[in-house]
Write a structure and sequence with these properties.
The chain has nine helices and 17 strands. By secondary structure, the protein is of the alpha+beta class. Strands 1, 2, 3, 4, 5 and 6 form a six-stranded antiparallel beta sheet that branches. Strands 8, 9, 10, 11, 14 and 15 form a six-stranded mixed beta sheet that branches. It starts with a helix and ends in a 14-residue tail after the last strand.
Length: 436
């Protein structure tokens, strides 16, 4: 690129300063040089803006599309990309311009395979030229190389004019810039895939509730973010047909939050097995977690559902309250006494018992479901309680409705939601029973 710029600039003699005597020939030379400097600066600005338009996201396909659009805008013709993943070579992708102008894909695929292998005993050019059936048709491949890794080739073709070296250097520069962004995109994809595997390992299936309680759970990672987070849901079977429902949220994001989430979850399962009241479960969890210096604070909501007594006992550690959905689909916020988040060592948790009739639905959730930037939390909860649900809708339908109405798939934070509905198990009559 530097060679192209220097060759286009006309040198100015050292004694060519402006003079008023002697005919003014030097003044014309200076004026011409300055005009050429201005034009060269404009070309550099155009190139700089074009390069800024490549790699605007961490998505490889988007980067390839941006690359071909910029190549056609600056050099004309037609551009496409052939990607190389391991030993797999794709066909033409992200075509910008007339696809018929592109050379045989088999030639381009061969160039993709050999992009990082120069011919023996020769100095590798940053491109490979290919002549079409007539001298007026030409194409070139610029390898997508970053470091020692080849990601494919940028294929550029044109009919009607011979190939200029400056054009080949320009296309090669664009390919070099795109390859760097593709490398970052693939690294990001690998990290996300690993994070997803870890998330699935940490978010093991919650325990099964008693048969007298139906439960449905959803987890949605924040859009465009890392899959691993600190939100979780849990169910724990207790004695006498009761089930403890749990939803929690470790402060922060990423791998560290997910690891801490697993610590809280393990602690909860151990403590809840003693069948303590919800506020005492929170108290012991807070005592244990506050002794761990590196453990992040977390909010947590416990709901001990007792279908036999048609009630639920609630306790909160800095968490948002649940929502009660009646049989006719009306929703309302359930008041819960709120204590400090877990890990602070402050204690001070209380329980409150509320009626929960057969067929009513209790919805527990993390703050990502309702919180919006710049909005008061009370207004966010009002928007949630204003949602109306079709009567008789199943729990999966309830979660679909609430996630859709609140646009949870575009939330700025992870979303975990748990819906539970008690019912009375039907007794199967014995073989010798007499119907009334």
């Amino acid at each position: 690129m530097a060679r192209w710029i220097q060759s286009r600039r006309r040198p100015v003699p050292a004694d060519s300063g402006p003079r008023r005597e002697g005919g003014g020939g030097h003044e014309g030379t200076v004026t011409s040089a300055r005009a050429e400097d201005v034009a060269e600066g404009a070309r550099l600005n155009t190139l700089r803006e074009a390069l800024a338009g490549i790699g605007t996201s961490l998505d490889e396909a988007t980067t390839c599309a941006e690359l071909t659009r910029v190549a056609v805008r600056l050099a004309g013709g037609t551009a496409a990309v052939i990607r190389l993943t391991g030993q797999t070579v794709s066909g033409y992708e992200a075509i910008t311009g007339d696809a018929d102008a592109l050379p045989d894909a088999r030639w381009a695929a061969a160039m993709a395979r050999e992009a990082d292998v120069p011919a023996l005993g020769t100095q590798s050019e940053p491109w490979t030229e290919h002549l079409g059936p007539t001298p007026a048709r030409v194409a070139l491949c610029a390898p997508l190389l970053s470091g020692e890794e080849a990601y494919g080739v940028l294929v550029w073709a044109r009919s009607g004019q011979p190939l200029l070296r400056t054009e080949a250097e320009l296309v090669s520069l664009l390919a070099e810039r795109a390859a760097s962004h593709i490398r970052h995109a693939r690294a990001y994809e690998t990290i996300n895939r690993t994070a997803g595997d870890l998330q699935r390992a940490l978010l093991a299936e919650p325990g099964r509730p008693h048969p007298n309680l139906d439960v449905a759970i959803r987890y949605l990672p924040a859009g465009g973010g890392v899959l691993v987070g600190g939100d979780w849901c849990e169910t724990v079977r207790l004695h006498f047909g009761r089930t403890l429902l749990v939803v929690g949220d470790v402060m922060g994001h990423g791998l560290e939050a997910a690891v801490d989430m697993n610590v809280y979850r393990s602690s909860l399962r151990y403590i809840a097995s003693a069948d303590l009241p919800p506020h005492r479960v929170l108290r012991q969890m807070d005592e244990i977690s506050s002794r761990e210096a590196d453990l992040r604070p977390a909010t947590c909501l416990l709901a001990r559902v007792d279908p036999g007594r048609h009630q639920v006992t609630l306790a909160s550690a800095g968490h948002l309250p649940p929502v009660l959905i009646t049989r006719d689909g009306a929703a309302s916020i359930v008041p819960v006494p709120v204590g400090p988040p877990l890990g602070t060592g402050l204690g001070g948790y209380e329980s409150a018992t509320q009626p929960l009739a057969e067929g009513e639905t209790l919805l527990l959730f993390t703050d990502g479901l309702v919180e919006r930037r710049g909005e008061d939390i009370d207004r966010s909860l009002d928007r949630l309680s204003a949602v109306r649900f079709p009567g008789g809708e199943g729990l999966d339908g309830v979660l679909d409705t609430i996630l859709g109405r609140l646009d949870a798939r575009h939330a700025e934070d992870d979303v975990a939601a748990l819906a539970a509905r008690p019912h009375i198990r039907q007794q199967v009559p014995s073989a010798g029973a007499v119907s009334p």
